[in-house]
Amino acid sequence: MKEILREIGMIARALDSISNIEFKEFDLTKGQYLYLVRICENPGVIQEKLAEMIKVDRTTAARAIQKLETQGFIEKKDDLENKKIKKLYPTNKGLEVYPFLKREGDYSNKVALTGFTHEEAETIYNLLHRVRKNVEVDWEFVKKGNRREY
Amino acid sequence: MKEILREIGMIARALDSISNIEFKEFDLTKGQYLYLVRICENPGVIQEKLAEMIKVDRTTAARAIQKLETQGFIEKKDDLENKKIKKLYPTNKGLEVYPFLKREGDYSNKVALTGFTHEEAETIYNLLHRVRKNVEVDWEFVKKGNRREY
DNA sequence: ATTATTTTGTTGTAAATGCAACAAAATTTT
DNA sequence: AAAATTTTGTTGCATTTACAACAAAATAAT
Question: Which pLDDT score is estimated for A132?
């Protein structure tokens, strides 16, 4: 069976590392861009869902979001019906930075797919999407304290 | 252009998270398994190369390796010709744990490829390999302090 | 041969990460 | 309706992560 996990790990760490270095320019520290980008694209999302989207621990997300708010990139708004949740929205400052984050992401994507035909790009996306769906089941299972048997 | 980076990020974080939880059983803390597996498979490797293989900061690798040594999973051996480098080898304790790490990795790989034909698995591996090659060029470039233009 | 550069390793410091444990609101079960 | 469970959010604590800065050995350039 082909070892795809290590390739994925290497790619993910390399690109994350690059992004973290490049986004220091905007006063974003390690990991923050992940949250900010998604809040801009999904205004009103709550932090619990954000953690699930990103696949990161709830408490890690909580603190990253807290910091983004303190820095003025996003704001938390109370919901009218549900007193427990806090909806997240980008501020003007956040919206100003977003295009740069998007551009960087697009560029990294382009670099990653260098030498790929349009069809190959389509293929890898579809296959990765399926892998992700497969993997997130186990992630939620294990995160909830369950034990995988193998 | 298809957004493959986010899928890759999600997959990588989810699987890393699972591994970290599962390997606590062997007293391995966050990230340590990455280094131990590779030292077992590449005995005599030096930490600088290990950091490059894994795509992690040199100093992070240094500390992870230091801890693995303290815990008795690996040992550092001086080289006879080159006084600067320290070759890394698994100890018996390290070699005893390795099969469990391997088994977990194989299982996660299997989960990731659930529903894939043999050919699809082959395809995604080859495409990922190419992505990795593309991406590591930029990683080394940026890590060395250079600036990407885009 | 000497000088300059690269490679390899370390340590100080600041920050993110994630587990454990808690609390309160919301939802589901009985 | 009351009780049990799930969802959502927070804080304390220990650990990893990585940048900066340094040092020494090895290699390359002059």
Answer: 97
Cα atoms in the Cβ-side hemisphere of radius 13 Å centred on A52 = 12
**List of residues 6+ apart from A123 with CB closer than 8 A:** B123, B127
pLDDT score at A2:
78
CATH topology of domain B4-107: Arc Repressor Mutant, subunit A (1.10.10)
Which residues from A are below 8 Å from B22, CB to CB? 142, 148
* Chain B residues close to A58, C-beta within 8 Å: none
Burial B42-72 (b: 16+ CB within 10 A, else e): eeebbbeebbbbbbbeeeebeebbebbbebe
Q: From CA A124, how far away is CA A112, in angstroms rounded?
A: 11
Q: Which of B20, B127, B138 is nearest to A128 (CA)?
A: B127
From the Cβ of B111, is strand C under 7 Å away?
Answer: no
Residue boundaries of the structural domains of chain A: 4-107, 115-150
Report pTM: 0.95
Residue closest to B7 by CA, chosen among B140, B128, B143, B150: B128
Helix%, strand%, coil% for chain B, nearest 5: 65, 10, 25
Q: Which two tokens stand for residue B41?
A: 């498979």
Backbone angles phi and psi of A46, in degrees to 5: -105, 160
Determine the average pLDDT of the residues in A138-143: 95
What are the residues facing A78 on neighbouring strands?
A: A86
Check B148 against A55: CB less than 8 A apart: no
The reply to whether residue B108 touches residue A142, judged by beta carbons under 8 angstroms, is no
